[in-house]
Amino acid sequence: QVHLAESGGGSVQAGGSLTLSCAGSANTYNCMGWFRQTPGKEREGVAAICTSGTRTSYADSVQGRFTITRDNAKNTAYLQMNSLKPEDTAMYYCATAGTFGVAGQFYQGHILEWGQGTQVAVSS
Known about the structure:
Oligomer: single chain
Number of helices: 0
Number of strands: 11
């Protein structure tokens, strides 16, 4: 069983950048993804990368600002977040699965492992 550990969260002003990392303890599955959640709201998909890094998808709210990449040799996924907005404030979780459904769906029903999360706070 693979375990995931996120890092890289923190506090930043609007317009700033952060890079999150998600390190797997062993080989991760076909897809790795980033999700986020704020209190009182459902967890939502942010970005996903599948098929050895050849297919990526993004939520509309982060398209053009966030970039997901993956280093399979290190079992690690990254989320480069630029032009951060206060509404990006959330707990960010990484996950791994065989599939997240069709591109952009971020289906959570097949997720095999979640990380414990890393907090991102963006101030205006």
